Automatic annotation (TrEMBL):
GO biological process: transmembrane transport
Protein name: Phosphate/phosphite/phosphonate ABC transporter substrate-binding protein
Alphabetical list of InterPro entries matching this protein: PhnD
Signal peptide range: 1-20
Similarity-based family: Belongs to the phosphate/phosphite/phosphonate binding protein family.
One cellular-component annotation, GO: ATP-binding cassette (ABC) transporter complex
Length: 326
């Protein structure tokens, strides 16, 4: 599929789901004090009749069924230990998840640090838990090039084309752009072309098909694409790797009742200790097996990550989108 087609369809699907999430339920505004009853805020309570609505960002651009399959085991495990019921759905865009939370149509969400930060600033999201693997709760963004590319450093991408994912993605937009800026590459003036493909997988597909000189995405997405045989790892190589990024979090709506928040946190904190929970049920980003979940992860880690992205302003983002549309 040509990159222009990828971009067109990603925008169409994103618009469609934004409408779908917006029409899913009744009203509900934002900054009112925390209520003691979930139904008073238009939120669900985790019962069989009103399961908690979990919405996942389309991190890897796969099918809805595939993305749900990545996360269903961990929510099944939490359900087994807490009795809470969950209904998992996949958004077509990162922005749709934020809209769903601010409009009180999403109770629990999985998204990247930047998208979480936006939902938190809107007064809708509160940190629930992050995955832990080998004692750490981090992941990485990377900029990849063809194996035979002459580029040795990021500065060599001046005049070249770069494919990125969703414009609200931490690891397929914000960090790649921040990395380019830190290397002295102005993404608007110095890059030959920018493609906004809508997802990590689409950016990698454009690179694999020879439609772009470089692509930015998460390492998890690259590994998943290799595992799923969507790209040939012998034909693609890493050009630059980001510093550690706080792991994409699970968040809950801030208006959920305190007792329900506690139940959720306890469920994720103790998931790895449940006798009925097998290790393969504990999964994170991209369906990758993780050791456990940490519901006591410090919020300050996300604040620090956002500070490092200060150069990627809304104004710059607008200029990049304008360039991508040319």
């Amino acid at each position: 599929m040509a990159v222009s087609a990828l971009r067109f369809w990603s925008l169409v699907v994103a618009s469609a789901l934004a409408l779908a999430v917006g029409c899913d339920s009744q009203s509900g505004r934002k900054d009112a004090p925390t209520t003691q009853r979930a139904d008073a805020a238009g939120l669900n309570d985790g019962s069989a009749e009103r399961p908690l609505r979990v919405v996942l960002v389309p991190a890897d651009g796969g099918t809805e069924q595939g993305t749900i399959a990545d996360f269903q085991p961990v929510f099944n495990a939490v359900s087994a230990s807490t009795g809470l019921k969950f209904d998992l759905k996949v958004a077509a865009s990162y922005d749709a998840v934020v809209q769903g939370m601010t409009n009180e149509r999403v109770d629990v969400a999985f998204f990247g640090p930047v998208t979480y930060h936006r939902a938190r600033q809107a007064g809708a999201a509160e940190l629930l838990a992050v995955a832990v693997e080998k004692g750490e709760s981090v992941y990485f963004s990377g900029i990849f090039v063809p194996a035979d590319s002459t580029a040795k450093v990021l500065g060599d991408l001046k005049g070249k084309s770069v494919a990125l994912g969703d414009v609200n993605s931490t690891s397929s937009f914000y960090y790649p752009i921040a990395m380019l800026i830190a290397a002295g590459v102005d993404p608007v003036k110095d890059l030959g072309k920018v493609y906004i493909t809508g997802s990590h997988a689409n950016a990698l597909a454009a690179l694999s098909a020879g439609k772009t000189d470089a692509a930015g995405c998460a390492f998890n997405s690259f590994e998943k694409a290799v595992t799923d045989k969507q790209i040939d790892p012998t034909k693609v190589r890493l050009l630059a790797k980001s510093e550690p990024i706080p792991y994409p979090p699970l968040a809950m709506h801030r208006k959920l009742p305190p007792e329900l928040k506690t139940k959720l946190r306890d469920g994720f904190n103790g998931i790895h200790k449940q006798p009925s929970v097998k290790p393969e049920m504990i999964r994170g980003y991209g369906g990758k097996k993780v050791d456990r979940y940490n519901a006591d992860y410090p919020e300050s880690e996300f604040d620090a990550a956002m500070a490092k992205l200060a150069a990627v302003t809304d104004a710059l983002k607008g200029e990049i989108l304008k360039k991508a549309g040319q």
